Amino acid sequence: MGRAFEYRKATKLKRWGHMARTFTKIGKQIAIAVKAGGPDPENNPHLRAIIQTAKRENMPNANVERAIKNAMGKDQKDFKEVTYEGYGPHGVAIFVDAATDNTTRTVANVRAVFNKYGGNLGTQGSLSFLFDQKCVFTFKKLADLDMDDLILEFIDYGVEEDYDFDEETNEVTIYGDPKSFSDLQKHLEGKGIEITGAEFTRIPTDLKDVTAEQRETIDKMVDILEDDDDVQNVYTNMKPAEDAE
């Protein structure tokens, strides 16, 4: 099953379905990046990458600037990145990434959803063996860019040979070692490549078959989790519908 290439395609467009919720989640990412590296995108590569993602999601510049300004305020909430993991119904593994100013509230909300659907939360790291964390960069493909040469050049950064190419938007998406995020960003920018999105994702190492009825239940659970304002992303190891047997 390898890298579950089809899984990435199936989940890439699902994230952050509604505009208002998308902007809220990006705003929290901006706040965390500003707290960690300052408000100047030129000197804060992580913030610069988030701003590119905000542009891709059509977040107005005024919203981005306001989020940066608010992050520097004395009354700004201190957001913390946390993860929750456990098994949902039918033995499907579920990984939840969140950004919250109140971990007690967030874990209670996440646990309530797991309990409602007969799942259970595990300890942190208990399901890490089922998912590989990757950094993801999406960028405009230059006319003279040889992707084979680029992948070879980035091999030391853990970039995978498989990549996505969207002919309609002329965008390439590559997946690399999350520890190499800053180095990859620096090298892409150094080549004059326009980065249109940068984030972290989790790829399941083994996909689980489910029935159509089971899939419907798990999808409902994931939708409820994603509706929580503290939740950034939800990942499962459920096999995509188009690949199910």
Describe what is shown at a glance.
The chain has 245 residues and is of the alpha+beta class. The chain is built from eight helices and eight strands. The protein has a four-stranded antiparallel β-sheet with strand order 3-1-2-8. A four-stranded antiparallel β-sheet has the order 5-6-4-7, sandwiched between helices.
Based on the model shown, name its key terms.
245 residues; alpha+beta; four-stranded antiparallel beta sheet; 8 strands; globular
Averaged pLDDT, please? 87
In what order do the strands lie side by side in the largest sheet? 3-1-2-8
Tally of helical segments: 8
Biggest sheet record:
4 strands, antiparallel
Structure description:
The protein has helices at 5-12, 19-37, 45-56, 61-71, 103-116, 147-153, 181-190, 212-227; strands spanning 80-87, 93-100, 120-121, 131-140, 164-166, 171-176, 195-204, 231-236. It is of the alpha+beta class and 245 residues long. A 4-stranded antiparallel sheet has the order 3-1-2-8. The protein has a 4-stranded antiparallel sheet with strand order 5-6-4-7, with helices on both faces. Strand 5 and strand 6 form a beta hairpin. Helix 2 (19-37) runs antiparallel to helix 3 (45-56) and helix 2 packs across helix 4 (61-71). It starts with a helix and ends in a 9-residue tail after the last strand. Residues 1-7 and 12-17 have low confidence and may be disordered.
Topology (SSEs and partners):
Blueprint: H1 5-12, H2 19-37, H3 45-56, H4 61-71, E1 80-87, E2 93-100, H5 103-116, E3 120-121, E4 131-140, H6 147-153, E5 164-166, E6 171-176, H7 181-190, E7 195-204, H8 212-227, E8 231-236
Antiparallel strand pairs: 1-2, 1-3, 2-8, 4-6, 4-7, 5-6
